[in-house]
Predict the structure of FAD-dependent oxidoreductase.
Amino acid sequence: MNDVAVLIVGAGPTGLTLACDLARRGVACRIVERSGSPAVGSRGRGLQPRTQEVFDDLGIIERVRAAGGDYPDIRAHRGEDVVWEGRMIEHREPTPDVPHPNPWMLPQWRTTQLLRDRLAEFGGSHVEFGTELTGFEQDADGVLATLVHDGVPELVRVGYLVGADGGHSAVRRTLGVGFEGETFDTHRMLVADVTVDGLSRSHWHVWPETESRTFRVGLCPLPGTDSFQFTAPVHGEATPELTLAALQKTLDAATGRTDITLLDSSWITLFRANIRMVDRYRVGRVFLAGDAAHVHSPAGGQGLNTGVQDAYNLGWKLAAVLAGAPAELLDSYEAERLPVAAAVLGISSTLHHKAVNREPDAHRRDDPALQQLGLTYRGGPLAREERAEPGSVLAGDRAPDAPCLAADGSPLRLFDLFRGPHFTLLAFGSRHADAVAEVAARHPKLVRGHVIAPSGDVVDAEGHAGRAYCVAPGTSAVLLIRPDGYIGWAGDTATDGRLDAYLDGLVSSVG
Ligand SMILES: Cc1cc2nc3c(=O)[nH]c(=O)nc-3n(C[C@H](O)[C@H](O)[C@H](O)COP(=O)(O)OP(=O)(O)OC[C@H]3O[C@@H](n4cnc5c(N)ncnc54)[C@H](O)[C@@H]3O)c2cc1C
């Protein structure tokens, strides 16, 4: 008999996202964190559009928006002169299908704080700080884990263990899973959170090298705080001092000015670029997620974001299997996430090398892949496209948003319908109304059905939903949206047994 269903090791953004997702599904889990207190440090401060959609689904997007801010323009200085101003990425206006089109800046310590608060609201168990996983063994029915708190060991038996324990993952090492890639000992960076006197908070200030396209020091204001993130590449082999005085010296040398004073620092670290990933995401009942499975160059801001997506992919599957769905559902975690991690790693490596090689566009972040909105599980084990003539949005793709109306004429977004732990059955066309109601009634805990039609419960008054899903006016389609916001199944009808077969295979006995 297992004591708890899931043990999450590590309370960074990945572990906390998973803990929230499991808690709102009523799954009993524990989340342990080796550090004695929450991590400080702005670290992953860029929330990509897809991550914002996940946070919308978890019900914290308003808080994320209130606590964070847009990326400021970059202002390059030479001494006291401003020599260039520009952006990493052009600002985009929201569109009906993409409500959060721009990266949003929020220091990582704040993101994790918001996730811990949400975990408490979901009634999940609190983070057990100062508790380290020191070992585990697994058998066919569970995992026996050793936790140490205040020097006192505890044996706990769990159904599944998730290693969200960061780049140096003990879980990964205990599993013996490979972590192939590169470590760039010579590409090091000083990163710190500092308060500054003598510098406006309107811009992300950089002091470029005189003759090259790289920078010597950057100071980026962190929204919702009075701090800046300080960054400075470290040249040579010597280990720099991690003190405020040493940062000040670096700043003075880079700027040639004496009017900018670093007042205080809450976090200073020496970052070394690592680009590595696992060859397996799962061994038996133990899973790897986030930095434990892939580490990135900070260029492109993908690390935290990819970890959040891992957690979001795994959460509903673990909950479904614990509720009785076939255990094979868990195989799809590695099948879906490993190729994504490999692709993301490729993009951040390209950006890293551009920066190192001082290419002219090294600061640009326009590649749409960085937003993680185009990420697709097409062709994967859970994507079933059954339509005779589908448009360009297919099973496996992200389910887009669209502003519509409820039957009473009040505004309603498709994301409002998706929000929560359920599958959403969306039928375009009133002829599917009875079938949709029957499927939803057969799976009351799992599926919520909606009919998009003038007489349906969702009215596509301006055609945004039809356009977003490539369903032409007057034609029909039935789409099953997974709990993590991807189209799982798409067909021309819900009555020929194929949707039932898909749902039965996926989650049969969950109800
Ligand atoms: C300077 C810097 C800048 C970055 N910039 C960006 C960015 O702009 N965008 C972006 O997306 N990402 C960025 N990242 C990366 C981002 O910070 C990481 O990808 C993210 O923290 C990964 O989250 P995680 O939860 O997977 O792992 P972590 O945040 O590393 O959390 C793992 C946790 O597990 C705990 N732990 C470890 N071992 C054990 C154990 N045995 N028992 C219990 N607990 C354990 C650790 O204490 C830690 O708290 C940056 C990172 C750095 C350092």
Observations:
- The first strand starts at residue 4 and ends at 9.
- The chain has twelve helices and 27 strands.
- The chain has three domains: 4-69+103-181+275-371, 182-273, 384-510.
